[in-house]
């Protein structure tokens, strides 16, 4: 099915599959399995109930568990309403949610189903909250065109078809979980929806051969490997799509050794999920995310910043302007493009530390420190210093600072070596496992205060030697002209 066959909406894709594959499984949810025909009828009836309440085009919001979000998503798409899914555990609703009609529960079942509403390709289908890891969450307006194009482009890199089943255990209030429905309905595959991520339950389904595809963030992959005891997945598992946060080389090495088919991706809410994807390879290093998907272009400018353009781009932000110039979206990430046209992400532009005049990318240091024995989690930030500017500072979980420093002296280049290391109980991460970097300096200040006030307490610190002129290395942010490229 191409984007032209999609008739611009998820609902029309579902209706088309209900006609072509009426008895094929479409959704496994809350202990029941619905065929494409059965799902289309149930969704059409819920959409009819929704249409009786609201005029077409009104944004509909709901904060609820995954199964209720799924039903509301499908009913909204069928009735022609943009859907804003909200985190049911969120302490407060984002400010942009005030523009939506918030439902108390999913739409009920009407007596009869309505046909899917006609929608324009550029009409908004979803309002997706960004992760908020870089500050206040924004409401990304994704049109039907972008979501249909993303599903079609994904299929060009990740084969998917009737008889396949995609395990949906990511939150449905982020684009990574929502996009699974577009991919599966475009391909005639089934969605296996879990209420929440449970590593043991997910591994049971994978091990039983019930799942051919799964979307994971790195933290979920690590827990699945633990649940499996590093046993290999069955050959029925064709794809483990990794995204949402940076994958470390130790975790990649562990998963590949166990035989997991890792597809490493790069994307964001603003690109309707994947913009680039790297198929399984035995030659991978940190940050490598592959070539852009069909219909997308990726450029890295002289300043090292990654920009993207193509048919998957958002319309803009709800209540705000689109940061798009001449069709290009500035992502805020730093990267390089290799000779094969593959993107390597180096980190966020705002996160770069300047220590002794050298640029240091926290993501690169974190990836290296993840290989240190005993380190269960790690984040790198800066301690302000009057001489050196930013002192590279590591916050580690599960290891003693002195041991980390000793390991760093043996294995890390001088400019990447932490000059201070603190042990903390946990790091601030969001629902997708992404570091909330804005909170790291506050955590650092708290840890230092406790260290000074509690001799022998949980928080420990080690101060390594400061940078020396002889240990300087060319910063990653300075790129040769061969890195300043556009790929498509």
Fill in the keyword field for this structure.
15-stranded mixed β-sheet; alpha/beta; 2 domains; 11 helices; 27% helix; single chain; 4-stranded mixed β-sheet; Rossmann fold; GMP Synthetase, Chain A, domain 3; disordered C terminus; 488 residues
How does this structure look, described?
- This protein is an alpha/beta fold.
- The protein folds into two domains: 10-347, ANL, N-terminal domain (Rossmann fold, 3-Layer(aba) Sandwich), CATH 3.40.50.12780; 352-471, ANL, C-terminal domain (GMP Synthetase, Chain A, domain 3, 2-Layer Sandwich), CATH 3.30.300.
- It is built from eleven helices and 27 strands.
- It has helices spanning 10-20, 36-51, 66-79, 144-157, 175-187, 199-207, 218-228, 249-257, 362-369, 401-411, 440-453, and strands at residues 25-29, 32-35, 60-63, 83-86, 101-102, 124-129, 139-143, 165-168, 190-193, 213-216, 239-242, 262-268, 273-278, 288-292, 296-300, 305-310, 316-317, 324-325, 328-337, 343-348, 353-355, 358-360, 377-385, 389-397, 420-423, 461-463, 486-487.
- It has a 15-stranded mixed β-sheet that branches. It has a four-stranded mixed β-sheet with strand order 23-24-25-26, sandwiched between helices. The chain has a three-stranded parallel β-sheet with strand order 4-3-5, with helices on one face.
- Helix 1 (10-20) packs antiparallel against helix 2, helix 2 crosses helix 3 (66-79) and helix 4 (144-157) crosses helix 5.
- The radius of gyration is 23 Å and the shape is globular.
- It starts with 9 loop residues before the first helix and ends with a strand.
